[in-house]
């Protein structure tokens, strides 16, 4: 929980009383590699703060996994549309390593936020950070070539290049695995 407390303090001021109001909405959960935090077709009922490990968000398109995001330590994984609108999720979130998360239960979080304005502020700031991340990802694909996207990941998310498999990374970048191999070899020479 210490990582979560530090994360919260990086967003807003948070007292011991605020923490006591938030605590009932939180639970620590563990997932094995390939376990699902959220399956496609389910309604998302939680935010997941990643303490250890990483997971991916992906769509199944005609039997092919299309990776749309990866969430590492200090990230919050969720489907913001499903969470907010109570719609079924079009994508899944799956553990790629053994995963330790702090789960924010949606209903308990809303109840705590109704009683404590600072928790409501925290929720709004978390959602803004998630939306900003999604906007950055969208711009990445609209404005950059595959090589530029790879270079951006090298500079901004080097842990992604170290931990994510080549096939998952190529899917995320929207290129064939062979194309990614050529980009990587050009970058290394």
From TrEMBL:
Sequence ranges assigned to domain Cyclic nucleotide-binding in this UniProt record: 10-107
Domain of life: Bacteria
Matches recorded under InterPro entries: cNMP-bd_dom (IPR000595), cNMP-bd_dom_sf (IPR018490), RmlC-like_jellyroll (IPR014710)
Protein name as annotated: Crp/Fnr family transcriptional regulator
